[in-house]
């Protein structure tokens, strides 16, 4: 009973709580609803508050937390979909029943229960958002990605190089350099856009550094783009915060724009290199030195625009109005005045947009007068940009040197030596004592100005002696120099009648007048503070009047092309003068110059005068005397010996009309000047006239030319004037140069000691030195020699002979330039010397290249004419001895069969591996008049015939050596020439194929699968593998004969894959060749073949049949010749294919020849078409096509290759093609006869046709329209008479067809006239009766 009672009480307890809860729903339903309404309102308020915070965070670009977004969405769903409907519909429902007599207990219970449950949900939602954090800082957005860079070729090339550097994981800091306004920032923005598009970096940011960098500002710009909050007060703490933020981004590009000086990256907080391998830095600067100080690993310099690019940019800036007949020629001249500087082009173009002709003419006048600041906008944009570069120069000497350069005309090659002498006279370099110290300082300053792009390199032959100034930079320099504090007055004109107008003559310090004719007189010039007067005329100017006291401050006087009977006696008032130039003048008596006792520099270069008078000996402070190319009656005794402080004497090509013994006595006076004389430029003179002790111990620089004999035997008419020009050229020089002509035995006979000069010599020119033997070359050693030029020197068979010391200092270790002409040279090194070196290398088990380092500094090598040499280098010599070689020229070597020949030891083994040969810096290769040359690489067998891989059709089961295919550059040696830019081939009669890419075929196998031919042909049966003595290890698979292709495994990276024989006993149907390990390689990943080649010229090679050979088979090629711009093929009698892909229709050539701009083909009589469609698709950059004298050519673009679907629509767009010239091609019928072919020429402007009688139409597939050639307005056909010469009928096809019909009618008309004339002549002259 107790058990029942306890169970019952427990059940009662369990039932009471649920029953009570249910009753509570009923009893307190209104309270539950009120509580729900109250909590719902609180939730709404909470949700609205959160939304305000979300909106604020969104406006600040912050990222809303996912849980916040989810909570807001959940609240909206609960309130909108559930609670509001419950409160509006169910709560307001009728709660009574039986017509309102009784309450509806069931409904009230339900309402109370739901209200209670909903309230719990609302409370739970309220509790979920107790945290105040609703967002996170925004992610780094980086810089805005926009660009205005034009797709100019000059810019695209640099851009591609920069992008390639950014892809290189080993390059962390690179720089874009160039003068102000050249477009560095624009390119940097384009780099940023492309880098982001290609996903090279997660984030790209940019900060402007400027000439006065603020570390905090740079930190702030980067932090803003990265959405970083730099809370630290000082730069050190901010740098730490910024560095930590950057390190959290795995790949980031930071662009630092406008670098003027070295910026401490650590101080800014930019981690780089080992600190953060994923951080790349791109600098832009007009100062290369600043980039180098920041350890830039690659500096990419932007040059000015080409003429065509400059005009396109100017046309865009100035608008279409410039194309009118009145403005076009003026606009062309104005665009040329901007000299390709983008900021000047855009500024001037926009300033003249929609202006009238008078304003255009005035602008042209302003530009030509170098006062372009009067043109609206020029001062603000162009001048300020370049002037900043000038102001930022730290050295006052650099600024003065820069301003001196504006004394000369536009586009002038400024002699650096002139800057040295002017600067010395003006006392610009007061901390230099000697002339050599001053010269070193000026050359250093010139380099500084070049690195700041305020000066540029000259294009002259001896460009290291000159410098140039961009015309726009010169305008800015003139603007600066003409200000009061500098006082320059510079005028360049055809005729100058009077001195320029000068507002305040006392402010004038420098006057430079350069003209064809100067008519003004010196006595009219009154400038009391004038320091430099530079007058240069192309016509003789007479100087007769006196110098006035107002000119007594002159320190530098330079007169050129003047006739001076005698310098006036008033010259003595110029006691402050330090430099006097009287160059190319006619001078009767120069004795008054002796009164200028403070004179330090006297140049009479190229002048004609009676004699060097005794008064010149009074110039006790004279440091430099230049009488180069002077015509003198003589030098008075005692003059030269009196110049006790003379440091430099230049008397090259000085013509002296005095007796030999008198001249010899004058030369003997120089010996007493040995203590001070540092520079001597002398000759050419006969050896007999030189004193026996004519040796100067203290010379730091000399150029001495000695003729050992002046007999007629030394006349060299058959050599041309090149050698004599080298022997007597009048340029200033650097280094020690010795020129010798004649027999070396003459030096022994006269007792003249030549060896001290040879030991110091850096440049040596030997002409017709008969007794120059190999032993003599070894004896001298030439440890300092940098330039060696031998002309017609008999007896020299080798430069390095057998007795050269291998263990000591090697000869020619510093040699940079080597020219050998008309010599009996057989090789650079004697074979026994190379054999000895190879033996020594094998004994030491070391690399011969590392040990020898022969010609390790050679940059230029010129061979020829040389009648005996048959190869330039052996494999051991080529294998690493020429790491600096940049230019190789071989001319007129009748026995030259190859450039590199295979070298073997006594037992027949290879001394060096040809696969490791590379000429890493060779940019120019010229091979001219080498009549038996067949290839760059000659592998000789015992019969001196080449062993190369033949085609499979030539394989026979006999030991016959295959015939040479005569390929100039076979695929195996393409990697020898990674930097080659220019390849010129002329009159090489035996070459048949120029460039062979056959071995670069990519096999259609997975990338990791590689094939070793030695395994494919088996390893068990070596006798069968090498049957008949032929080694097939490195033959291409397709060339293997059937017995050599055995069933073997293919060696892969991690596994072996069996290759099954096909029914025709072939292993792989595609052709590929082995790499250096004998494995077939997939080149798609990294191979870029002849990537830097820009110009290819092939002239008069009568056996050449193919230029680019892509071989046979299927597959895709790696990129080849992607920088090739100019292709010239002239007088190639046997040329059949330029691009030989006829036998490989399924080959994929997708990324080659894409920068080819100019195509010139002339006199190739067997060429039937120019290129196939697959090549035409690649020529997107082609600008001009010039074809003439190809009598077999029928079409320009051939039909599609075999096996291709001819029904496919072919679209060819020559986007940049501007000019087509088709001359003297009697069988040419059309540009393309491809069915279903559409060809577009959006840039075509000129079409010239001559001697093409069969040209019926342009494109046979369809009619052309105006949209295909929107810029073409005429077709010039010289086969038509003048009225019909340039007719235009709206589209190209219609015009060509119309011209063809006209020519047909004209031919018929002329034929009928001829028949009528013959008939008339026959009637007038009947045959006489028999």
Can you offer a commentary on this structure?
The protein is α/β, with parallel strands linked by helices. Helix content is 29%, strand content 19%. It has a 27-stranded parallel beta sheet that branches. A 5-stranded parallel beta sheet has the order 6-7-8-5-9. Strands 39-41-47-50 form a 4-stranded parallel beta sheet, with no helix packed on it. Helix 16 crosses helix 18.
Summarize the structure.
By secondary structure, this protein is of the alpha/beta class. Helices cover 29% and strands 19% of the residues.
In terms of topology, how is this protein built?
Blueprint: H1 2-27, H2 29-59, E1 63-64, H3 66-90, E2 96-97, E3 102-103, H4 105-128, E4 135-136, H5 153-167, E5 173-177, H6 184-197, E6 203-210, H7 215-226, H8 235-247, E7 252-259, H9 265-268, E8 279-285, H10 288-293, E9 299-301, H11 307-318, H12 328-337, H13 342-351, H14 357-368, H15 378-391, H16 396-404, E10 414-415, H17 416-425, H18 435-451, E11 456-457, E12 466-468, H19 471-481, E13 488-496, E14 510-518, E15 532-542, E16 556-564, E17 579-583, E18 586-587, E19 601-603, E20 608-609, E21 624-626, E22 631-632, H20 639-642, E23 648-652, E24 655-656, H21 660-668, E25 679-686, E26 701-707, H22 722-728, E27 737-741, H23 745-750, H24 755-760, E28 763-767, H25 774-780, E29 787-791, E30 798-800, E31 817-821, E32 827-829, H26 831-844, H27 848-852, E33 860-863, E34 871-874, H28 875-878, E35 887-891, E36 898-901, E37 924-928, E38 935-938, E39 967-969, E40 982-986, E41 993-996, E42 1011-1012, H29 1013-1016, H30 1022-1025, E43 1049-1051, E44 1056-1058, E45 1079-1080, E46 1095-1099, E47 1106-1109, E48 1115-1116, E49 1126-1130, E50 1137-1140, ...
Parallel strand pairs: 5-8, 5-9, 6-7, 7-8, 13-14, 14-15, 15-16, 16-17, 16-18, 17-19, 18-20, 19-21, 21-23, 22-24, 23-25, 25-26, 26-27, 27-28, 28-29, 29-31, 30-32, 31-33, 33-35, 34-36, 35-37, 36-38, 37-40, 39-41, 40-46, 41-47, 46-49, 47-50, 48-51, 49-52, 52-53, 53-56, 54-57, 55-58, 56-59, 59-60
Antiparallel strand pairs: 1-4, 2-3, 10-12, 11-12, 42-45, 43-44
Helix pairs in contact: 1-4, 2-3, 2-4, 3-4, 5-6, 7-8, 11-13, 12-14, 15-19, 16-18, 17-18
């Amino acid at each position: 009973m107790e058990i029942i009672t306890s169970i019952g009480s427990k059940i009662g307890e369990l039932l009471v709580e649920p029953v009570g809860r249910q009753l509570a729903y009923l009893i307190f339903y209104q309270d539950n609803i009120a509580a729900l309404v109250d909590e719902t309102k609180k939730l709404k308020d909470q949700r609205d508050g959160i939304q305000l915070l979300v909106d604020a965070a969104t406006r600040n670009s912050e990222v809303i937390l996912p849980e916040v977004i989810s909570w807001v969405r959940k609240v909206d769903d609960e309130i909108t979909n559930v609670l509001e409907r419950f409160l509006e519909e169910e709560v307001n429902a009728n709660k009574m029943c039986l017509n309102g007599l009784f309450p509806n207990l069931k409904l009230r219970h339900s309402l109370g229960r739901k209200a209670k449950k909903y309230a719990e949900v609302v409370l739970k939602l309220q509790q979920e958002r107790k945290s105040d954090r609703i967002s996170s800082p925004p992610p780094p957005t980086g810089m805005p990605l926009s660009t205005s860079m034009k797709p100019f070729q000059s810019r695209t090339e640099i851009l591609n190089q920069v992008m390639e550097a950014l892809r290189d994981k080993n390059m962390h800091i690179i720089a874009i350099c160039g003068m102000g306004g050249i477009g560095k920032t624009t390119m940097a923005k384009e780099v940023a856009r492309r880098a982001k598009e290609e996903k090279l970096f997660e984030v790209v940011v940019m900060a402007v550094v400027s000439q006065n960098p603020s570390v905090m500002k740079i930190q702030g710009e980067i932090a803003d783009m990265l959405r970083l909050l730099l809370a630290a007060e000082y730069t050190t703490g901010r740098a730490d915060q910024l560095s930590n933020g950057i390190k959290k981004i795995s790949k980031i590009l930071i662009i630092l724009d406008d670098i003027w000086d070295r910026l401490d990256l650590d101080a800014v907080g930019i981690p780089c290199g080992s600190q953060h391998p994923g951080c790349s830095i791109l600098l832009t600067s007009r100062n290369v030195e600043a980039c180098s100080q920041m350890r830039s690993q690659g500096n990419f310099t932007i040059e000015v625009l080409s003429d065509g690019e400059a005009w396109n940019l100017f046309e865009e800036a100035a608008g279409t109005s410039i194309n009118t007949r009145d403005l076009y020629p003026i606009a062309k001249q104005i665009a040329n005045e901007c000299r390709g500087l983008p900021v000047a082009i855009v500024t001037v173009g926009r300033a003249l947009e929609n202006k009238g002709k008078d304003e255009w003419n005035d602008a042209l006048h302003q530009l030509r007068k170098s006062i372009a600041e009067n043109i609206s906008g020029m001062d603000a944009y162009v001048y300020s940009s370049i002037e900043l570069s000038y102001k930022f120069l730290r050295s006052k000497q650099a600024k003065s040197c820069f301003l001196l350069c504006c004394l000369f005309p536009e586009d002038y090659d400024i002699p650096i030596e002139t800057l040295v002498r002017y600067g010395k006279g003006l006392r610009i370099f007061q901390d230099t004592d000697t002339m050599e110290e001053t010269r070193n300082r000026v050359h250093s300053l010139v380099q500084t100005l070049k690195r700041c792009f305020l000066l540029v390199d000259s294009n002259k032959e001896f460009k290291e002696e000159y410098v140039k100034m961009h015309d726009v930079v010169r305008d800015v320099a003139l603007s600066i120099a003409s200000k009061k504090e500098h006082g320059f007055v510079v005028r360049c004109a055809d005729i100058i009648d009077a001195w320029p107008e000068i507002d305040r003559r006392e402010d004038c310090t420098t006057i430079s007048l350069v003209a064809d004719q100067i008519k003004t007189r010196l006595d009219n010039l009154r400038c009391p503070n004038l320091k430099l007067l530079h007058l240069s005329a192309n016509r003789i100017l007479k100087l007769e009047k006196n110098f006035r006291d107002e000119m007594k401050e002159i320190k530098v006087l330079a007169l050129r092309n003047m006739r001076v009977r005698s310098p006036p006696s008033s010259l003595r008032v110029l006691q402050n003068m330090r430099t006097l130039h009287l160059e190319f003048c006619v001078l009767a008596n120069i004795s008054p110059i002796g009164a200028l006792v403070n004179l330090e520099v006297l140049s009479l270069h190229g002048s004609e005068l009676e004699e060097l008078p005794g008064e010149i000996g009074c110039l006790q402070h004279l440091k430099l005397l230049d009488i180069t190319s002077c015509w003198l009656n003589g030098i008075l005794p005692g003059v030269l010996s009196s110049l006790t402080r003379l440091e430099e004497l230049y008397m090259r090509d000085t013509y002296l009309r005095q007796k030999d013994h008198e001249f010899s006595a004058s030369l003997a006076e120089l010996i007493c000047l040995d203590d001070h004389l540092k520079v001597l430029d002398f000759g050419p003179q006969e050896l007999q006239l030189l004193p026996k002790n004519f040796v100067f111990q203290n010379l730091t620089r000399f150029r001495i030319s000695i003729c050992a004999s002046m007999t007629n035997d030394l006349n060299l008419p058959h050599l041309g004037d090149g050698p004599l020009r080298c022997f007597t050229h009048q340029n200033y020089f650097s280094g020690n140069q010795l020129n010798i002509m004649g027999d070396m035995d003459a030096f022994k006979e006269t007792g003249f000691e030549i060896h001290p000069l040879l030991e110091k010599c850096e440049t040596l020119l030997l002409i017709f030195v008969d007794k120059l033997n190999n032993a003599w070359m070894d004896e001298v050693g030439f440890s300092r020699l940098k330039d060696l030029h031998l002309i017609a020197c008999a007896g020299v068979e080798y430069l390095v002979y057998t007795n050269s010391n291998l263990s000591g200092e090697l000869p020619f270790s510093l040699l940079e330039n080597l020219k050998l002409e008309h010599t009996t040279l057989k090789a650079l090194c004697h074979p026994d010397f190379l054999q000895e070196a190879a033996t020594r290398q094998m004994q030491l088990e070391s690399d011969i290249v590392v040990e020898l380092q022969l010609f390790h500094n050679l940059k230029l090598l010129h061979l020829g004419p040389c009648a005996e040499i048959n190869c330039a280098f052996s494999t051991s010599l080529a294998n690493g001895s020429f790491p600096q070689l940049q230019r190789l020229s071989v001319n007129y070597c009748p026995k030259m069969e190859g450039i590199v020949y295979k070298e073997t030891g006594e037992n027949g083994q290879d001394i060096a591996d040809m696969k490791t040969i590379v000429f890493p810096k060779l940019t120019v290769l010229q091979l001219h008049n080498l009549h038996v040359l067949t290839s760059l690489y000659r592998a000789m067998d015992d019969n001196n015939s080449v062993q190369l891989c033949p085609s499979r059709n030539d394989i026979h089961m006999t030991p016959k050596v295959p015939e040479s295919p005569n390929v100039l550059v076979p695929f195996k040696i393409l990697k020898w020439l990674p930097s080659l830019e220019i390849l010129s081939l002329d009159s090489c009669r035996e070459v048949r194929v120029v460039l062979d890419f056959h071995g670069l075929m990519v096999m259609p196998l997975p990338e990791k699968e590689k094939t070793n031919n030695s395994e494919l042909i088996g390893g068990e049966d070596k006798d069968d593998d090498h049957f008949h003595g032929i080694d097939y290890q490195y033959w291409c698979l397709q060339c293997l004969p059937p017995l050599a292709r055995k069933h073997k495994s293919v060696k892969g990276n991690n596994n072996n894959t069996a290759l099954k024989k096909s029914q025709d006993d072939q292993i792989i149907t595609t052709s590929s060749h082995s790499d250096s390990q004998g494995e077939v390689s997939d080149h798609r990943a990294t191979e870029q073949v002849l990537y830097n080649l820009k110009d290819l010229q092939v002239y008069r090679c009568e056996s050449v049949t193919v230029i680019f050979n892509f071989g046979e088979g299927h597959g895709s090629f790696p990129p080849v010749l992607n920088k090739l711009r100019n292709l010239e093929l002239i007088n190639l009698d046997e040329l059949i294919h330029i691009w030989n892909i006829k036998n490989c229709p399924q080959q994929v050539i997708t990324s080659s020849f894409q920068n080819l701009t100019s195509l010139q083909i002339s006199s190739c009589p067997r060429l039937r078409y120019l290129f196939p469609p697959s090549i035409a698709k690649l020529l997107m950059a082609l600008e001009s096509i010039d074809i003439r004298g190809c009598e077999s050519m029928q079409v320009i673009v051939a039909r599609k290759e075999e096996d291709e679907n001819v029904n496919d629509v072919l679209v060819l767009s020559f986007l940049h093609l501007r000019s087509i010239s088709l001359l003297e091609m009697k069988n040419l019928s059309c540009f393309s006869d491809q069915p279903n072919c559409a060809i577009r020429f959006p840039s075509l402007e000129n079409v010239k046709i001559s001697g093409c009688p069969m040209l019926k139409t342009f494109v046979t597939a369809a009619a052309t329209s105006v949209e295909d050639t929107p810029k073409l307005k005429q077709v010039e056909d010289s086969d038509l008479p003048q009225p019909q010469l340039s007719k235009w009928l709206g589209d190209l096809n219609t015009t060509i067809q119309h011209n063809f019909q006209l020519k047909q009618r004209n031919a018929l008309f002329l034929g009928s006239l001829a028949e009528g004339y013959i008939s008339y002549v026959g009637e007038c002259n009947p045959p006489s009766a028999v």
